[in-house]
């Protein structure tokens, strides 16, 4: 069962999302809050799989709340935040993704899209609206940053995971070496793809080698045995 916590200052929005998700047999809404300050302690206690977070709220905004939740989450259980917005909030969406959100959901999305987004994010993937994904990826890159400068694009942990992916290690092998959950590893990989604009793992690895971030003679990270074949 995927557990969800809803954060939005509008009661009708919260009620609507709760109603839409109540018909899904594999999703359960375990709580809701009308502000980020109200939500933070409840999310820490309840440990939901996904937090649906409005980005524009009085007091603490959704970006700040996302940053705090991600920073304070356990290494083996990253908080997965799916921010809710409209097309007019693109600037804030970029800030939320940079803060660690796993994706964004348009408030007028269909019930099927909302449920699919929750499932994808819960599994460690990202969710971006297809019509704006390319533009958002471009804007996620730090200002003045060379789009091939992998070290500037990724956090130290993401760089570590990319080196392991480039060495041919599976998510399960990375999980064991870094002592993380496999879903957390998958989240790191998804964020690597998002930040580098790579369509899949192979493209991210190709970018890592092409730009000199990794080299064929590099030792396998963590001392793992490289895969055969």
TrEMBL record:
Signal peptide: none annotated. Residues 147-212 form the HTH luxR-type domain. SMART domains: HTH_LUXR (SM00421), REC (SM00448). The modification 4-aspartylphosphate is found at residue 54. It comes from the Bacteria. One of its GO terms (biological process) is phosphorelay signal transduction system. Transmembrane segments: none annotated. It comes from Tessaracoccus bendigoensis DSM 12906. InterPro entries: CheY-like_superfamily, NreC/VraR/RcsB-like_REC, Sig_transdc_resp-reg_C-effctor, Sig_transdc_resp-reg_receiver, Tscrpt_reg_LuxR_C, WalR-like. Pfam families: GerE (PF00196), Response_reg (PF00072). Keywords: DNA-binding, Phosphoprotein, Transcription, Transcription regulation. This is Two component transcriptional regulator, LuxR family. Residues 3-122 form the Response regulatory domain. The keyword Repressor does not apply. One of its GO terms (molecular function) is DNA binding.
